[in-house]
Amino acid sequence: MTFKVGDKVVYPNHGVGVIEDVRRRAIGDIETSFYSLRILSTDSTVMVPVENVAAVGLRKLLSRRESSRVLKVLKDGEVATYDDWKGRYQANSDKMRTGDIRAVAEVFKTLTMLNEAKPLSYRERKMLDRSRFLLISELAEATGKKTEVIENQVDEALADGLKLVKSVEH
């Protein structure tokens, strides 16, 4: 996948960024091309080697159509369950690293439901907060809507999904 200057992209676990430059740099004896991207939420710059794009999961921003599919992930009544927190944490960490926004939405939904049942560990609480931030920031950027509007849509979709889960449990 190739990007050009000005493209909005998603860098897994960091969020939405903008390609600001494509540079060639020498590292030792090898010259390689890098994407210079500015992460919008932190205004930090990240250099990603062009040949590592797939390995790090750099991808284009969601389309509007894909955005509605992400909200459907929150609305459906499916929630992953694990017997032990270590297995759950590992599975959720793996999903977060993929950069797939639907996987991030699944982590958010699972941890939110779990948080309603019992307090989360510090690490899971951080993951819940991070997944919410990544979800909302990408949806807002993809749809051109204000963050507050997207927060409400996410909360409503999640509430619908949690109602389904609870109705299935009873």
CATH-level-4 superfamily name of the largest domain? CarD-like, C-terminal domain
Between the first and last Cα atoms, what is the distance in angstroms?
A: 46 Å
What would you report as the Rg, rounded to the nearest angstrom?
A: 18 Å
Could you please say which CATH topology of the largest domain applies here? Methane Monooxygenase Hydroxylase, Chain G, domain 1
General shape: globular
Mean pLDDT: 89
Structural class: alpha+beta
Q: The biggest beta sheet, please? A: 5 strands, antiparallel
Q: What portion of residues is helical?
A: 40-55%
* Assembly state of the chains shown: single chain
CATH class of the largest domain: Mainly Alpha
What's the total helix number?
6
Structurally, the number of domains stands at 2
How are helices and strands ordered from N to C?
Answer: EEEEHEHHHHH
Q: What is the topology, as strand order, of the major beta sheet? A: 4-3-2-1-5
Total strand segments: 5
- The CATH architecture designation of the largest domain is Up-down Bundle
| Low-pLDDT residue spans | none
